[in-house]
Every structure is written in C-alpha cells, then in structure tokens.
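Researcher: Please generate the 3D structure of the following complex. Treat every line as part of one assembly.
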Amino acid sequence: MNTTEEKSLNFIEQIIEEDLRKEGKTGGILTRFPPEPNGFLHIGHAKSIVLNFSLAQKYGGATNLRFDDTNPVTEDTRYVEAIQEDVRWLGYEWNGPVRYASDYFDKLYEFAVGLIKMGKAYVDDSSLEEIRRMRGVPTAPGEESPYRNRSVEENLDLFERMRSGEFEEGSRVLRAKIDMASPNMHLRDPIMYRILHKHHYRTGDKWHIYPMYDWAHGQSDALEGITHSICTLEFEVHRPLYDWYLDQIETFHPFHPRPKQIEFARLNLNYTVMSKRKLLQLVNEGHVKGWDDPRMPTISGLRRRGYSPASIRNFAERVGIAKRENVIDVSLLEFSVREDLNKTAPRVMAVLNPLKVVITNYPEGQTEELEIENNPEDPASGSRKVPFARELYIEREDFMENPPKKFFRLGPGRKVRLKGAYIIQCDEVIKDGEGKVSELRCTYYPESRSGSDTSGIKVKGTLHWVAVPTAGMVEVRLYDRLFMDPEPDNHKDRDFLEFLNPDSLQVLPEVYVEPSLKSARVGDRFQFMRKGYFCVDPDSKGEQLVFNRTVTLRDGWKKR
RNA sequence: UGACCCAUAGUAUAAUUGGCAGUACAGCGGAUUUUGGUUCCGUUAGUCUAGGUUCGAGUCCUAGUGGGUCAGCCA
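Model: Done. Output below.
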C-alpha cells in the first residue's frame, strides 16, 4: 500500500512522465511561475508555486520566476518586491535571474513583424466598439474587419508608426488573422498589441504599444525554454491560440523545446475570497488593514498570522491537483499549521481573560521556580523555569460556580492541577458588588508538586496559570474567519461584502503572560498552553509585545 | 440557442490505465495523557442518470443531467 501510494501520480505528473519517456529522457524539465505584479500573492498562488517548483525538483529541472508585466496601467514595482519576498519565504529559489515579459518586448515586436510579413497579422483601425460588435458572440460567428486585407507593406508601415507613438490610444490595434467564424472566441482575430502611451516601470517610455497576454505569454515561455507551462483552467480555451502563435513563429524561428500548456483547477478556500480584485477591494475600502492583514488569505497575511512556510507547503501538497472545480475546507489549512507548530512551537502560559486566585496556605512573600518542559513533542527543546507565587491568574472560563458533572476544571470545593505546579482546591468564591466573581481563595497541597507528587490525589483537570508578581503584559489579537458564509462570492444577488464577519478581530489589550516571554521577538511562534498557537506581530514595539492568534487548539470539549 | 472542460463519502483526492473503490481532512466512539492538545485504535459515509461494449466498467462508447469556462484594447 505504501509502495502504490508513492507511485500514484497526479495528471500533470503523468503527462510529464509520458513526455520524458517519448523523448527518452529521465529529467530536465523547466517550469515557470508567472505572476502579474498587480497585487499580492495569495494561498491560491502558493498552490501554483509549490506545484511548479516541486515538479521541477521531482523531475530534475528548474523553475523560472517571470513577471507578466504587459499592462503598465495596473502594475507596480511595489508588487514585484512583495512577490519575490513571498516566493523566497515559501522556501523556493528560482532559476537564474528574475525574468520579465518586458525583457522580450523587442523579440516580440520582431515576431509580430514576421507574422505581418506572412500575412497572418494586420493593423485594424476599427474602434473598440466596432471590434467588439464584429467579434460576434459565442453562439454566433463574427464578421471580418474592413481593414483585414490590407497589404503587407501598409501593415508594416502602420505597425511601425504605432510603435513610434504616432497614433492615439485606442485608435488602432494589431490583430492576428485567424478565423472570425471560429467557435472559439479567442481565435476570432485576437488582438496582439494595443496602443498605450504609458510609462512602464522597467522599459520607461520606450514603448507606445504593449503586447496582450496571449501574444506575450507563450512566446516568453518559448524564449526561456519552458517545457511545461502550467496555468489555471480559465486559460484552457486559450490553448489553441497559444499553439497557433507558436506554429506561426516556428515557420521562421523554431523553438527547442516547444512549450506545452497544461491547465489545472485553481484553489478555492471556503469562508474567504480568492480573487485579486476582491482582495484589493478589501484593502482599499479598509475592511482589513492591508494586504498583510492576518485575516487575509494572502501569503503575507498568513505569514503575519503565524503560518509557517512548511505548513503552507504541506497544505498545497495535500489539496491535490486535478481539473475539477473545488472548494477546500479551511480546516485542512488549520490542520496543516497545527501539525507543524505542534512539533516546533515552544509551550508557554498566558491568561487571556484573568481571574485572580489566592492560595491561602502558601506563605506570603514566598516564590519558587518550577521547571517546566518547553515542548513535550520535542525532548531536545529542554525546559525553562517558571515562577510560582501565592497570587496567581487563571483563565476565567476555567472556573464555574455551578459546574456540570463533565466540567473537569475548577468549581467550589473542586480540585485541579496547576500545570507544572501543585494541586489546588477552591475553598471560597469572592464576588464584587455586582455579583461577579472577582477572586478565588484556594489551598494547595504542598506534597503534590509536579515531578515529586506524593499526595496520591487524582484530578481530571490541569489548568494553565501565571503568577501575579512576575506576570508580563502583552496585547493579543484574536482572529476569526473574515466571512460568515462558506462561499461569500458565490451568491448571484448578494455582494460578498454583505457576509463580512463583524467579529473577525478581537483585541485583548492586557493579557498576562509568564516572564519567559520577555525575550520573544517579532515572528516567534508559541503555543499558549490550552489556548492555541500565537505569533509575535511586527506591531510590537520594544517591551510592548503584540501577539496574533494563528489558530486555536483542536477542542475536544467543544463548548461555546 | 455554439464550442470546450469537468463529474468518486460532507470536503479534497487515488485506484497498477478494464480486475476486491483506497487515503487525507471533517464527524462519531474508545485508549493514553500533568495541555479537554498530541499520540494510538475503531467507526459512519462514495463511483450523477440511462443505455451499450465486455467474462468483468469508477475507468471505454452513446445519450441525458448537473457544474464550469469563453463575447477586455485585463492577466
């Protein structure tokens, strides 16, 4: 079973192995990750990154990072920085330099001239509206442009003048001459170049025409020697065009290897949105604090939330690769972080919502240092000293005045163990003027000390705690799902913003923590025992630490 | 009144390419536990429908149904 499990390949791996077999090779593929720098990367991109890089690793190849920067009006260098950081943080190193589609603008222009000379491309003076109208609709053929049969000489002249900036934006385009009656809309004389008098962050003001995606992408793949160009399903209808362009160019400029486009289903996660447009909207309208808000499904958001690169990689491997539309349950993502952090995150104690406990038989002024292991899952992580004292904080929800039988925690007359310390018994409940429990008076059993317990007392519950005199204080931010609906953008009559969860962020400004947390630094991850995994946020300033809750612990006692 | 793609437990994904439908997450039950965590064991639950080919169909064929994509000078 293990052996068959290892042999199981996804459909892309099957295609690659078949391709390699046909060519009598055992490896040497080249994949690419081609983001457009017009937004931050999200968990869906992570799936694509992991796919492309792990395929290359598996089949002895490499992966290029190429920015698809063919639209200067929406793209920005700010995004190219952020994207590189995210890919690196995920743990991948791309092949050679960062590449840009704009590196190939000259080559692309040359290829376009080649198509014109073959009579396979022409300059169209039609307006945007005319072109749209004459394109027809999916169920009915379009009609040919009156400019479709210009002479090669005229096309060459016009195209050259388009490039030099002689014409207004929108006045002309270069189109491939294919088939206005094709059932595939993308083959109805697709536009190759549009006029854009825009400054490009890399090519400056050199160009007045910019290539469309279809014209730029496949050729960039071919020029880089990409063997397998993996993209998402919506590009499936583009594949005939991808191949057509390559077919034409290969008549005067053969490519070895010739790239092959393969499509797979993008990742969708429930209780969130994954489109860059909607993510941008959340940022711009202030529904979140930025692209890296810990509630965002962006890679930078997840990083800030406390997700580790390994947990995201494991998640991406687990979701699988297929062509079926899918919606992954967030619980799989959460499982992936817990799995990783359980093995790596040191345990500490923090009380989110405090209730004071006074141990009446513990000598006033006395303290002691208790040795507590840092991570029971990792013996190599050692232990630390945690101070104990007569006055402590415990979690308010760990006490009930009238507890049900199955409640294993504290109640009047009940006993519990304090983690790594003593067994205590609740003797008296003190309330404030409003009847709210304000303090517990307890007694402890001196002989029940952890590690040398001779008391013989058995308790069912163990509580975390923080000693009052030595307690540190931090801010904690608790996060819940950003949307209350599993598929917020899948409702025909309702806007996804209607499903925003008003309680997705809860700030606890004063949380008591054990003193060992003083040395925590931005990015450090911990398990707050019994409460979940937490990560130090960059908003922390010096001693003033801010923690983000990455995810709660699995709760076998599902209360609330 | 088109073309193309897709359809396996609640979710996602396998099935040596035509040979006992498996895995993970989620759920449920139990054991262990100084985290109601972890770990371990058990368990519920599936091939869209109808025909056909075949000794044998999740897999091949036909039709249907359902879902998705395509009408940007976005990618």
